[in-house]
Amino acid sequence: MSDDHRLLTDAAFRREGLYGSRVEPTFSGVLSFMRRRYGRDLTGVDIAVTGLPFDQAVSNRPGARFGPEAIRKASAHHSWGPVWPWGFDPFDTLAVVDYGDCTIDYGDVAGVPAAIEAHVAGILAGGAQTLCLGGDHFTTYPVLRAHAARHGPLALVHFDAHRDFEADAGRRIDHGSMFTRALDEGLVDPARSIQIGIRTTFAGEGGGGVRVIDAEETHALGPGPIAAAIRATAGDGPAYLTFDIDFLDPSTAPGTGTPVPGGMTSFQALSILRALRGFDPVGMDVVEVSPPWDHAEMTSNAAAMVALEMLCLKAWARGARAAPEAGRGGGPGGGAGGGGAGPRRP
Ligand SMILES: [Mn+2]
């Protein structure tokens, strides 16, 4: 089923088939996410990656409207096939396309939530799941509406420096309050939701009932216990995974709208995602990458890797495993005593 690994420039429109990776010079070619086929035909597609280039809900620095294009560009660094330490190419198992971006009318901010919701609902109706590239974090709210309409209330698994539960009477276009709306509208089940990496407090902040693993606990617990807490909280019902890049420390990811020191390294973030293998969210996003504030692609590169790890999680849930000859094998988790194709669980 897989394409072979012959060098192919512009695989985004020249590749044949949906599966496998084509090796392409990192410095050239059409910048689809992970060199996937660019297009809106969802026939046989498992996951559509789509950009939500909207940043008019930010409380401080704008720029996240440039996030999708920067993440696509950074993803070219990683489009080689098998992903360490998983030992498999997620695109051998998952049919993933780059669906392009949602059309955002910058002059009709009030109409943006409905536009994003309709864009994502259209993809879901086409039989694919979504991996959305923000855009500021407000974009997650209309995406949750589209998912809740299909799946019912969702477990929200939320990586962030901020809880995003500020007061909201139901009208704000605000990247700090949209999860209050999501709770009020029943899109999110608070008893099955969890926030990781939090290191801010705001007067009057809501979000009661949602479990918080704050930054101190995130540093202290390590990936295995955090992943176990996420799995125990989210349970077996439908879950939505949202990753605000400001979960990472500004020294790791400076290119974001509301950076907060005291955060995590990319290694911590990726390790937690790898420890979540077996978790199978119905939708995912990476948000708040603001390239004008970035340096040396630090933030967009981290975001591309986070998004790739999310696809590895999905591939694992669909049965992808390391080939016995794939390096150290054994899947993510590391350490001695492994090898071969079997998973090593925390
Ligand atoms: Mn945040």
Salient structural properties:
346 residues, 10 helices, alpha/beta, single chain, binds manganese (II) ion, Arginase, Chain A, disordered C terminus, nine-stranded parallel beta sheet
Question: What do these coordinates show?
Answer:
By secondary structure, this protein is an alpha/beta fold. The protein has a single domain, classed as Ureohydrolase domain (Arginase, Chain A). The protein has ten helices and nine strands. The chain has a nine-stranded parallel beta sheet with strand order 1-3-2-4-9-8-5-6-7, with helices on both faces. α9 (266-275) links the parallel β8 and β9 (283-287). α8 (223-234) packs across α9 (266-275). 56% of the residues are buried. Residues 333-346 have low confidence and may be disordered. Manganese (II) ion (MN) is lined by residues 137, 160-162, 244, 246, 258, 288.
Give me the CATH fold name: Arginase, Chain A
Radius of gyration: 19 Å
Look at the helices and sheets and give the structural class: alpha/beta
The termini sit apart by 32 Å
- In round numbers, the mean pLDDT is 93
Largest sheet: 9 strands, parallel
Query: Could you say which overall geometry the principal axes of the C-alpha atoms support?
Result: globular
* Ligands bound to this protein structure: manganese (II) ion
CATH superfamily: Ureohydrolase domain
What percent of residues are in strands? 5-15%
Number of strands: 9
Number of separate domains: 1
Regions with little confidence, pLDDT below 50 for 5+ residues: 333-346
Proper CATH architecture: 3-Layer(aba) Sandwich
Annotation field: number of helices: 10
- Numbering strands along the chain, what is their spatial order in the largest sheet? 1-3-2-4-9-8-5-6-7
The CATH class is identified as Alpha Beta
Give the SSE string: HEEHHEHEHEHEEHHEHEH
Q: Can you give the helix content as a percent range?
A: 25-40%
